[in-house]
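Journal club side-thread
Mid-discussion, someone asked how the predicted structure for our own chain would compare to the paper's figures. Pasting it here so we can look after the session.
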Amino acid sequence: MRELGHEGQDKLRHASVAIVGLGGLGTVAAACLTMAGVGRIRLIDQDTVETHNLQRQILYGIQDVRTPKVEAAVQRLGALNPQVH
């Protein structure tokens, strides 16, 4: 396995990504990209967090039910890496 090194990490920090849909796959992608250090992530989803989806949408908890997914995701992702916008 090859490491990114300083140059690779710098490229990630300056990268921008859009994620459309913050369901099962979108929440995993958002968490991985945030922890990897991608500099700017645009989150797109008009839905709210629902109880029946919590088992597969890893960014949300019971306290997030009826909250817009984007708002809940921003809070959780900000805790993972506050340097990501």
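Post-session note: The chain has a mean pLDDT of 94.
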